[in-house]
From TrEMBL:
Residue stretches spanning the membrane: none
Top-rank taxon: Bacteria
Key words, A-Z: Cytoplasm, Heme biosynthesis, Iron, Lyase, Metal-binding, Porphyrin biosynthesis
Full protein name: Coproporphyrin III ferrochelatase
EC number: 4.99.1.9
The organism of origin for this protein: Nesterenkonia halobia
Length: 401
């Protein structure tokens, strides 16, 4: 992707709410180095006990009027694991790993962590940071791709945290670019898939008998079409689908170039964890539906790569490890679910690279990226990732609206 950092793509004036000086004018990529007081790790949040499950799900679905009886249908997934989502534990580990890597590089910034839907809430975290004198924050959201729920909603969370705490005009929040094709994020997926394909080959399976399914969270098709800047014209599924397809293709191409066993197998992008009403179109095909169809296509094995997920949270442990693996068993397929990045050394290093890249205003042509869609924008573009049902709410780290 080639981005023109001049002309109409560069709004004039204070175009980006709550931003530092380097980002406030709204250029796609910052060109002035910027000092920050602290790092803000932003997560989704999850329950940490049985009594937390329903209150957490009410937070997730706030404003949608979903009765508790229907929420209990989802609650059973959490209750299966003692009411504890692993996502908070992962973010504690990720925060510690980021801090350790930063200290190794001589960066002394404190790393704060806050969530959208459960404690510690972002509002409380931002207030805590401000009380400690840390008012210039550089944020990392725990989601790699572009869509409303995976990018803009986090930016709305930042704006809400600043506004609800009365810290507008005091706290500034910038956000690093979406990191879907950053080498450190992609490498753990490639390593895991290579290991799965070696295992299939050792069992005597031929590449044409294996299918790789890159799995990510489904989202409403209307939101998908509005993901990323509309002027890019990325086609069906918008930037969200295009980014996943590009990364999946890059992984396969990389493994083939390295001569990994079984890397000539076919691959495709599938979706999971749909939660909308049947009347609302969401991205398809569903991972379990595709698994059920594979034997008729001559497949004997399937590798499910959780490409849309940073860690083994509930939608990996339940929707893939339980439901998708059950579907594979019913279809008579040999199946492997490959690892998520978690706190893989390369992933953590890649995140800290992004922090340094933003602090130093590294030129776009020197930024690491593995697909033609990168490097993605520092400052989200006008109208990027609109929520079809809600429209535009105040958001940080992007050009208005």
């Amino acid at each position: 992707m080639t981005v023109d950092d001049s002309g109409p793509q560069t709004p004039d004036g204070d175009a980006v709410p709550f931003a530092t000086e380097a980002s406030a004018a709204g250029a796609p990529h910052v060109s002035s180095p910027q000092e920050y007081d602290a790092i803000l790790l932003a997560g989704f949040g999850g329950p940490e006990g049985q009594e937390d499950v329903l209150p957490f799900l009410r937070n997730v679905t706030r404003g949608r009027g979903i009765p508790d009886e229907r929420l209990e249908e989802v609650a059973v997934h959490y209750r299966h694991f003692g009411g504890v989502s692993p996502i908070n534990g992962h973010n504690r580990q990720l925060r510690a790993a980021i801090e350790a890597e930063m200290r190794h590089r001589g960066l002394q910034h404190p790393v704060y962590w806050g969530n959208r839907n459960w404690t510690p809430y972002l509002e409380d975290t931002v207030k805590e940071a401000a009380e400690a004198g840390h008012t210039r924050l550089l944020a990392v959201a725990t989601s790699a791709y572009s869509s409303y729920s995976s990018c803009r909603q986090y930016r709305e969370d930042f704006a809400r945290a600043v506004l609800d705490t009365g810290l507008a005009g005091t706290v500034q929040i910038d956000k690093v670019r979406q990191f879907f094709d950053v080498p450190g994020f992609v490498r753990p997926f490639a390593e895991g898939l290579a290991e799965a394909l070696r295992g299939f080959a050792a069992e005597g399976l031929a590449p044409e008998e294996i299918r790789v399914l890159f799995a990510t969270h489904s989202i409403p098709t209307g939101d998908a079409e509005r993901s990323g800047p509309q002027e890019l014209g990325l086609g069906e599924g918008g930037a969200y689908a295009a980014q996943h397809r590009a990364v999946g293709g890059q992984i396969i191409e990389q493994l083939r170039a390295e001569g990994h066993a079984g890397a000539q197998t076919g691959w495709e992008l599938v979706y999971q964890s749909r939660s909308g009403p049947p009347s609302q179109p969401w991205l398809e095909p569903d991972v379990c539906d595709r698994i059920a169809e594979l034997p008729a296509e001559g497949m004997k094995a399937v590798a499910v790569v959780p490409l849309g997920f940073l860690s083994d949270h509930m939608e990996v442990l339940w929707d893939l490890d339980e439901e998708a693996m059950e579907a594979a068993g019913e279809a008579g397929l040999r199946a492997v679910r490959t690892p998520t990045p978690g706190v893989h050394e390369a992933f953590v290093a890649g995140l800290v690279d992004l922090l340094e890249e933003r602090m130093q205003a590294v030129e776009p042509e020197r930024r690491p990226h593995l697909t033609d869609l990168g490097p993605w924008y520092d400052v989200c573009r006008p109208g990027c990732c609109e929520n079809v049902r809600r429209g535009f709410s105040p958001a940080a780290a992007g050009v208005k609206p």
